[in-house]
TrEMBL record:
This is ABC transporter substrate-binding protein. Residues 59-317 form the Periplasmic binding protein domain. Its main location: other. The keyword Signal applies. It comes from the Bacteria. Residues 30-57 are annotated as: Disordered.
């Protein structure tokens, strides 16, 4: 993890999960499994001449195993975006949570001499050297989300804004409490993994935004990014505080457990803000009647954007909406606030938890 922008991933390297062997490079499937209804990026209208077919390019792709909804959506968005281009061949390696196997998988993409590489590392520091090897071999690397410490290891970084997530959540909470005329609110926070820089950045953004309204966090506890722990932590906070005014949960995957605990308690005196922008959270927001009023995004659609950028870089093109001739060195995505008023616009971008 690094300490300066671009910020590290919403997902830490502490996640477990079954290890899937990473071996021979294979062309990825471009159609979703029939049983899988997870939305993928809806990329809108053509972006000028850049979307017209150009030089044929092969884009390699490597990411961790899809053991969480957000990670699963990363792979789906990348594959779906690549499918839109007749000039792109998408070559994916088996996803894995094993560092050494991901290194071997990336080396196989280097040996295959792909035209560009989109890489979401399990750990940016430990995958730094193999990414540098790709760059030294003339293969531009689009570093997705979890950043490599060496800027010579990637051509472009694209990812979310963890601090910005906290700011967006804090502003929503602060404005709502001011509207309600609450002067000394009880605000609780359900974090991901407290020791991770990404969690610390989210908490700092939340605290900084709340401070502008004269508010502070009453209590916070980390829930390890899991449904089970989310349920336990929410139950503990509900028992510890007989009255709550607002709750921010950092992660919509663990939010499944948080919401279950709240519903089981029957408590409705407070409102809740989620984090990351899952489809099930958006459906809950749209249905109304519950405590969940909003979620702040950390979009897995960044994978689709990464494929677009990799294609442009491999074809020697820049971004159509910029004056400059080359793709930028880094792109930090905004954390947007999804409420009942705009949820229909964001629903196609949500991921299944």
């Amino acid at each position: 993890m690094r300490n300066s922008s671009p910020r590290p991933s919403r997902r830490g390297v502490l996640f477990g999960g079954a290890v899937i062997a990473a071996g021979t490079v294979a062309a990825a499937c471009t159609s979703n499994d029939e049983k899988d209804t997870s939305p993928v990026a809806q990329t809108g209208a053509a972006g000028g001449d850049n979307d017209k077919p150009g030089k044929q390019v092969t884009i390699g792709f490597s990411a961790p195993a899809a053991d969480h909804g957000w990670i699963a959506a990363i792979a789906k968005n990348a594959q779906a975006q690549a499918k839109k281009y007749s000039d792109v061949t998408f070559r994916s390696v088996e996803p894995t949570n094993d560092i050494n196997q991901q290194i071997s998988a990336v080396e196989s993409l280097i040996s295959a001499k792909v035209g560009a590489l989109v890489l979401l590392p399990n750990d940016g520091e430990q995958l730094n050297q193999v990414a540098r090897k790709a760059m030294d071999a003339g293969i531009p690397v689009v570093n997705l989300d979890r950043v490599f410490p060496d800027k010579l290891s990637y051509r472009t970084w694209i990812g979310g804004d963890n601090y910005g997530m906290g700011v967006s959540a804090g502003h929503y909470v602060g404005k709502r409490l001011k509207q309600k005329g609450v002067s000394n609110p009880v605000i609780v926070e359900v974090q991901g993994i407290a020791t991770l820089p990404l969690t610390q950045e989210r908490s700092k953004g939340f605290a900084d935004a709340l401070k502008s309204y004269g508010y502070t966090v009453t209590a916070k506890q980390d829930a390890k990014f899991t449904v089970e722990t989310g349920n336990q932590v929410a139950s503990n906070l509900l028992q510890a505080h007989k009255k709550i005014d607002a709750l921010w949960n950092h992660d919509d995957d663990q939010g499944v457990g948080v919401l279950a605990a709240i519903k089981q308690s029957g408590r409705k005196e407070f409102f809740m803000v989620g984090g990351a922008g899952s489809a099930n959270a958006m459906r809950e927001i749209k249905a109304g009647g519950g405590v969940l009023e909003a979620t702040v995004t950390y979009p897995p659609t960044m994978a689709a954007s990464a494929v677009r950028l990799a294609r442009l870089i491999a074809q020697g093109k820049g971004m159509a909406d910029l004056v400059e001739l080359q793709v930028p060195q880094s792109v930090t995505l905004a954390s947007e606030t999804v409420t009942k008023d705009n949820v229909d616009r964001y629903m196609p971008l949500g991921f299944e938890s």
